[in-house]
Amino acid sequence: MYSLPGIVAVGYINEAIDEGNPSKTLESLLLPTANISDVDPDCAQHYQDVLYHAKSQKLRDPESVSKILWLDEIQQAINEANENKDRVKQGVTLIVDVNQCLEGKKSSDILSILKSSACNANDVISECADRYYEALEKAKELKTERVSSEGSWLKLTLQEKYDYYYNVDSKESSWVLPESYSHKESWLTEKEIEAFWKGYKQRKAYMHRRQMFIDNIYSIVKIQSWFRMVTARKSYLSRLQYFRDHNNEIVKIQSLLRANKARDDYKTLVGSENPPLTVIRKFVHLLDQSDLDFQEELEVARLREEVVTKIRANQQLEKDLNLMDIKIGLLVKNRITLEDVISHRTKLNKKKGGEMEILNTTDNQGIKSLSKERRKTLETYQQLFYLLQTNPLYLAKLIFQMPQNKSTKFMDTVIFTLYNYASNQREEYLLLKLFKTALEEEIKSKVDQVQDIVTGNPTVIKMVVSFNRGARGQNTLRQLLAPVVKEIIDDKSLIINTSPVEVYKAWVNQLETQTGEASKLPYDVTTEQALTYPEVKNKLEASIENLRTVTDKVLNSIISSLDLLPYGLRYIAKVLKNSIHEKFPDATEDELLKVAPDGFDIIDMTAGGQINSDQRRNLGSVAKVLQHAASNKLFEGENEHLSSMNDYLSKTYQEFRKYFKEACNVPEPEEKFNMDKYTDLVTVSKPVIYISIEEIISTHSLLLEHQDAIAPEKNDLLSELLGLLGEVPTVESFLGEGAVDPNDPNKENTLNQLSKTEISLFLTSKYDIEDGESIDGRSLMIKTKKLIIDVIRNQPGNTLTEILETPATAQQEVDHASDMASRAIIDSRTPEEMKDSQSMMEDAQLPLEQKKRKIQRNLRTLEQTGLVSSKNKYQDILNEIAKDIRNQRIYRKLRKAELAKLQQTLKALNEKAAFYEEQINYYDTYIKTCLDNLKRKNSRRSIKLDGKGEPKGAKRAKPVRYTAAKLHEKGVLLGIDDLQTNQFKNVTFDIIATEDVGIFDVRSKFLGVEMEKVQLNIQDLLQMQYEGVAVMKMFDKVKVNVNLLIYLLNKKFYGK
């Protein structure tokens, strides 16, 4: 602890330091109470500087509690200042003595001066005295030459913050810059002097050490190697431990690096125009077929068969159900007999019970028997249908050689069967190629003006519409339009009838039916006459307004759903547009949009549901407006009464133009489906179709009939195949002997039924199964690629040429044989229809060197055809292998998508079949109800059914008798030619119901004498009412009101 006087002294000293007055600071330091020792009055300024610096440092120190200097800190600063004073004096002595020695040329004194004045005299080497002097003298001479004015002051800087000044002439010194300061430029400074002798020492020490290294180089190398070994081992062990500590992270990093490398290689494979062999080799394993591939292929084939079979069954069932709809509808309106409905119901139930199932052919007879001749015929048919499927020009020509009624049936059956109803992407691609070829052929040969496309109902357009109708159970048009169409159908109050005459007749019929009295209005009127009635005009205006509103809804639904429109429709629209533009360069881009709602399966009708005439007319009116708008056709002439919609049509037409232009903007099928003519050659399974015997025979017959038109050249492949097949076989010869008992009385029916038998044909190209000279360049390319893939797996090399020219080692041959043995095991499990051709399987078993020789021969052949070139080291065939690898990946992806699509399609088809079965059950219930009702009406008519469903033993209803006067009074009879009204009381009519339902005998008598007899069929009367016929003649002279006659018959005979 400090005493009180000492504390006071500390305060004085700190105050003096803060004032910056050296004299006051010196006085406070000399205070007896301060007890500061070794204070030199000559160093007052330096004391002030050192103390001020010490106090500044303390003030900047955040950890310092006190902000003043205490006595011990002051004493430490004074001691530091005194040491600085001694240091500068020593430095001044060195500078003065050295420079005076050099000026006096006293070289002998230089050594003693340096040793006496240097801080470390031991660093001065006596042997180097002469060198010291020479170096210092030379440096001083250089410095003297650059001096222009000479002063007498020397300046020394301590710690780069304190300056000391010394005058060599007056021996005066100061810690403050003198007023008359002028530096002595010619003298060497302390640092310069020390630098010379210290630098020389260091150089000498270096040379000495270097010589020592040279003398002991062997030992040094040994020491260095040992040290490096220890360092490397230590580093290795440390890094090894680091790897062990971060094993999981390292594995992830390595995986990432490998993945990046593989990704870069795959990018090269995919993106490079000429991928190198080293990259291709890494990915050839992707071409291998695993068990999963085979399982998926078999599952796809099974599902495809089920889908195609179900489509055909549903189509037939749908046709029968549509016919049943019509028959029941006619029954309701008394247009056919109940017996007809029962007969059709019986057939339908048989089909439901199993007759629609496909008959399975046996393996020991028919075209699929094991005889060589029949196997050859089967292969030829497989080649024929493959040729038809992949070369669309034949079918395109055949379609236009047949009459339209035949071509339509051929399209609906054989063509869609040949392409499996586009059940996968390959078939859809090929079907679109057929559509494209056929449409171009039709426009080229049958379209003379653009309008023919709209008015001529082109065959190909019908094909496309039928294809997109939704045979696969996935009707896109249903998704597009079903909601808005359902809304229109469900609106019971919606009435759209734009025909003034129909509106008028409907109005008159309504009046007569409601009142049971003849209307005084005329029955036959023209459009102009109908428009004169306010009731007709009001109904027409309301219909037009409703038509605009509903059409807007349908139009918005169509335009907003462009992305949902099937690719096939959009592509054919594009082909149509391009083909028309090519043939008619000056034609506009007008297109046609045709909507047939229930015909396109848009309406989701439940069992027993039926679109009625009003709903059909409403939808038909919308279709008519859309058709006019799409073709920019205004309402004129006979449709003049609809001219108020012309502005609406023009506006809608502009929207359609934009819509059609966007709809045609689609890629080509090759790009869309990633397929080309070589795709079949790299897929695992052969394409298969499911076709009936009748369709095979029919196609064979049509091809022979029109052979001259579709394949006029004798060397055409189609002509060659037809020549191998010979004459068209009969169903019996196609099935083989024993298929049908020759003594069977129902032989014709049996053969007819068997002709519906479906068989599966695995399609193959004729050149895929032959060998030798007849093989074409495409197949040779495939064989050569397979051989190259086998070779590059087992033999390294940067180019194909290098590999082929380098002999294989024994180990490479062993590895190759092992690979081929593994492949043989896999091939043994491969289904027969998925195996390679026999020649390819034989090539696969060749040794490595023989394969290389065969590759070289094949490459020379391919080079002659221009498919490859040795100049680029056969890079073309490597590019093809790279393309196969890419396509294989895409194919696997597409196959998985196809599996999902087939499963979804089969589910939809099963749902549709269940719906049809529900309808069949509904019809059964309805017909039974009709029978029960008829049995209960014994008083009017009784029908009993035997076991076969035929009506028997009917009781006749009582005849009805009216005089002509009475019928005239009721309005039923309008007049009798050549007979006055007052004579009508003498004419009587007897109406008698016959045994045939809906048939009536009408006998006329005049004054009790029977004159004539006619038969009335109520279905004819209903047909006339439907067509708007109000008046008809009986006996060629009696005019009757059709509406009131039907009313009378219903009332008297059916209780309606």
Automatic annotation (TrEMBL):
GO molecular function, one term: calmodulin binding
BP GO annotations: mitotic actomyosin contractile ring assembly actin filament organization
Assigned keywords, A-Z: Coiled coil
Domain of life: Eukaryota
Keyword Amino-acid biosynthesis: no
GO cellular component: cell cortex
Start and end residues of each WW domain: 147-180
Stretches assigned to coiled coil: 892-919
Domain Ras-GAP: 413-631
Keyword check for Ubl conjugation: no
PANTHER family for this protein: RAS GTPASE-ACTIVATING PROTEIN WITH IQ MOTIF (PTHR14149), RAS GTPASE-ACTIVATING-LIKE PROTEIN IQGAP2 (PTHR14149:SF12)
Name of the molecule in the record: IQ motif containing GTPase activating protein 2
